[in-house]
Amino acid sequence: MTSVGVGQILLFFGLILLLTKPIGLFMSRLFQGERTFLHPVVRPLEVLVYRACGVREDDEQRWTQYAASVLAFSFFAFLFSYALMRLQGLLPLNPQRFGASQVAPDQAFNTAMSFMTNTNWQWYYGEATMSYLVQMAGFAVQNFVSAAAGIAVAIVLIRGFARHETDRIGNFWVDLTRATLYLLIPISVVAALVLCSQGAIQNFHPYTVAKTIEGASQTIAQGPVASQEAIKQLGTNGGGFFNANSAHPFESPTPFTNLVQIVLIFVLGAGLTYTFGHMVKDTRQGWALFWAMAVMFLAGVLIAYPAEQAGNPMLEQLGIETGPTATQSGGNMEGKETRFGIAASSLFATVTTDASCGAVNSMHDSYTPLGGLVPLFNMQTDEVIFGGVGAGLYGMLLYAILGVFIAGLMVGRTPEYLGKKIQQKEVKMALFAVLATAFLILVLSGITIVAPFAKGSYWNPQGPAIANLNNAGPHGLSEVLYAYTSASENNGSAFAGLTVNTPWYDLTLGLAMLFGRFLFIIPVLAIAGSLASKKAVPTSAGTLPTHGPLFVGLLVATVIVIGALTFFPALSLGPIVEHFLMHQDKLFSTILMW
Questions:
Q1: In terms of pTM, does the model score above 0.85?
Q2: What is the 3-state secondary structure (H, E, C) of 481-545?
Q3: CB of 112 closer than 8 Å to CB of 85
Q4: Which of 53, 24, 26 is nearest to 38 (CA)?
Q5: What is the 3-state secondary structure (H, E, C) of 102-154?
Q6: What is the dihedral of CA 102, 106, 108, 113, to 10 degrees?
Q7: pLDDT tens per residue, the chain (594 residues)?
Q8: What is the C-alpha to C-alpha distance for residues 56 and 30, in angstroms, rounded to an integer?
């Protein structure tokens, strides 16, 4: 590692730490119905939305009604996006004349499911497949509302802890509207203007055909980029306008825009921890969650960065300089942008997989085995390390429930958290959510590896199983495991060395996104309803403190141990064995010397 690289990481973390309280306090006041500084401007529009949609602001819902609203809204969002892609050839704002031939039914299913579930997995080249209208009315809109739905679910779980002896947990349509109008749109507008000021583009021009110095023709894609870029990062969506995503200079032109983007990815997830503490009337509880997330984030980036800076020992054996010098960065620069370098690329890869975002500024498939292991394992923790907007907080709270349950078993007491007894229903629901995503990842990866699926069809009994893999061996396994992990955990990033534009992958990854999203959300809402109906339990001398270093350590250990026990066998056959193979000559020499 270099001092400059470490400084970049500390600068980023310092900015997140500074922004956590103000943004968290704003969200707490917003979702408790208090007046904010944006009310004079936004409140009339909010009231207009309620009148147009027939929403009664003061009518709160039971958890079953709230869950039904989430599912209904998501279903129609899926249908709208699917229809928009299939009909794009008949619709305006399509100067490139893209049509249904660019998006087959299985591809449209995968993409519509992807954006509806806040995954934003992309099998396609955005600049060569989707019209401007689809990019804006389809994808950018879904970036807002899918993120707002995640925030709404997190707020409901907070209310479950904060309220007592009630079956009402809020109104989904009100929470969705407020998250969109007061939070996501204002910050996105400011962020988009900042990106434009640095060189990100925003226009509706047809693509430009230019002549290169050598006399060849080059088509320069463009479009409404900055507006989608801002919300894709803020809403932890991740889907890029261009195939190169945030590695493209039109999406992220400078190191400063790179910093802006990773701050946008983390800021709401971090802020929600303070929102939690403020709404339950004990901000220490929120800071405990923040520091548990921070410990795991820093551990991840301080593994990925040194692994990438160390480079590939096979190149070193060929006499190639792999250390940083005044003229070159050294390390593993394959798949990375020189304007960002190794430190900023490793930081971005860690942040985007901590936060179920999926945006990338470098190609994860080109990382060293340990460098690629960090993003993969980040997702397999259910992305509770700050996590997606809303999803990170409610995921971490499920692990907190499991943590206090384990602690209660160890000391022989009924587990309690924030004055609520944690009983059989809450533990079962939390375990169901955690195990559901693990089941999807491991079962679908296993089937895909061993079954003889050909690239261009659903089933080919005569074809070899290796047809699934662009790469054989442990790296090929890692690519498949990463794909299903990314889909099931609603991240959307990819190793990108795997050809997933096939009917099998389109359908199974789409289903993994669907079940990974809602088999997590529904148990969360059930837990919220159960907690809200409970009486408050007075604190006693035997109550486990849940705001200090001991609880932070317990929470981190719970997340790491559950993730390690679940996925260690698969990881051992993928990135871990690949790491040892890469270092086999050095390892063999060390063994001989020993």
A1: yes
A2: HHHHHHHHCCCCCCCCCCCCCCHHHHHHHHHHHHHHHHHHHHHHHHHHHHHHCCCCCCCCCCCCC
A3: yes
A4: 26
A5: HCCHHHHHHHHHHHHCCCCCCCCCHHHCCCHHHHHHHHHHHHHHHHHHHHHHH
A6: -150
A7: 788 889 999 999 999 999 999 999 999 999 999 999 999 999 999 999 999 999 999 999 999 999 999 999 999 999 999 999 999 988 998 888 888 888 889 999 999 999 999 998 888 888 888 888 998 888 989 999 999 999 999 999 999 999 999 999 999 999 999 999 999 999 999 999 999 999 999 988 888 888 888 888 888 888 899 999 999 999 999 888 888 889 999 999 999 999 999 999 999 999 999 999 999 999 999 999 999 999 999 999 999 999 999 888 877 777 777 777 767 777 888 889 888 989 999 999 999 999 988 899 999 888 999 999 999 999 999 889 998 898 899 999 999 999 999 888 887 777 888 888 988 899 999 999 999 999 999 999 998 888 765 444 444 444 444 444 467 788 888 999 999 999 999 998 888 778 788 888 999 999 999 999 999 999 999 999 999 999 988 877 767 888 889 999 999 999 999 888 899 999 998 898 888 888 775 654 554 445
A8: 17
- Cα 534 to chain center, whole Å? 32
DSSP structure class, residue 293: H
How many DSSP H helices and E strands does the chain contain? Answer: 21, 4
Residue 220's DSSP bridge partners are: 208
Q: Are residues 261 and 229 in contact, defined by beta-carbon separation less than 8 angstroms?
A: yes
Residue 422 tokens read as: 């944690």
What is the C-alpha separation between 178 and 152, in angstroms, rounded? Answer: 9
DSSP reduced 3-state for 169 = coil
- Gap between the Cα atoms of 491 and 82, Å rounded: 20
Helix pair angle (283-310, 391-411), 10° resolution: 110
Domain assignments of the chain as residue spans, ordered by start: 20-280
How far is C-alpha 381 from the geometric centre of its chain's CA atoms?
12
Q: Are 368 and 307 in contact (CB under 8 A)?
A: yes
